[in-house]
Amino acid sequence: MKSDNKYSKIVELLHPLAIQHSPEGTMPNSVIEQWLHALATDSDLFAKREIKNAKELKKEVINILKSNKLYEKESDFFELIYSDLKLKPTQKARFRFIDLFAGIGGIRLGAQVNNGVCVFSSEFDSFAQKTYCLNHAETPFGDITKISENDIPEHDVLLAGFPCQPFSYAGKTQGFEDKTRGTLFFDVLRILEAKKPKVALLENVKGFKSHDKGNTMHIALSALNEAGYNTYWTILNSYHFGVPQFRERWYCVAIRSDIDNGKFRFPIGNAPKTTLRDIVDLDLEDPALTLPKFELDRIAYHFENYHLSERVQHDNSMYAPNTKKGKYGVFSFLKADGSLRFHVGDFAKTQIQEAFYACLDTYAPTIIANRVPKLWDIKRKLSIKEAARLQGFPDEFQFNVSNAQAFKQLGNSVTVTVIDEIVKEILNVLGE
Predict the structure, then answer these.
(1) Which of 118, 164, 252, 359 is catalytic?
(2) What is the spatial distance between Cα 97 and Cα 22, in angstroms, rounded to a whole number?
(3) The pTM is what?
(4) Rounded percentage of the chain residues whose pLDDT exceeds 90
């Protein structure tokens, strides 16, 4: 699409106008890309309101394109903009949403499969922006703290996998502005206050509920209530939604109080259980994925000796005696689910997990930035594509960053299938 002569001409024509409407920290091409997506799906445009309101800007952009014979029918324009995109949205939106702290667009995909259309995206990390653009044909806006809430397009649903930050108890009024100012959650709140979408779907790590002894979550929910939203929250495990990954996350659905009928319920998560065998390419041969000799040796040592003892003790002489491994020893244990665990310390009450090896007939632990799932029975790490499947991403999803960055991005992402099911429940309640 980007190489298309028509598309290049469009970018050239709109660039001077996009410069005027580009917030600090956001490149004009991001503005253009999101404008074009808005035109293709008949949505509102991002617009700096002190220059021109969104409706007037939309007319101006369309007139520029029409006068250059680059816009005739909306359907033809949709095909031009999304011609070579594999994960394209629907042209006729069931609902419109914005994607904050967007990462690589996992939450977006979960909404998009329910015929939602994204009208604004924002992500600070430049590597995540690259992956996002490759798969969604738009570069997210940059620093959300530099973007006026009034300039963001109208939308029905706000999506945000916001960072977990401690909130302040300083402040005289004790309202959400005082308690959350200086955190990125504050930016979610100010957008909710200004745009009043019907629903917000928020995601965070499981520990969010107990962060700062529960005060962080309490303030967040209270702030959402103060902003005019009724809140529903829970912990959901990706393993219950059709992927072989044990990943628990905190989810919150905030429904505008004037439209909330009290009927929202989180999905139960009763998809058939899957194992790693369901997502692993058994014929894949990639030397880069093979486990190093040290790991292969200790896996072999476990199975050579496990019949002698439930917990196999490994040689820890290479560790200094004042370190945890040197002091307490390293032990391996094959669990009933088929996972091979290495621990520091022999007793359950004191042991610290040192390594986790799954097998084809079990599930992977939570993907995190620096931990690539490893399988002891096929003696290799998962590939990027396999790890993406653990998060419910379709095989069409691509990466144009290093493997280290790709694993980091997947570790920071959401499980698409979980978002899909939550969005379905939201739409059922709203009657969309």
Answers:
(1) 164
(2) 20
(3) 0.92
(4) 76
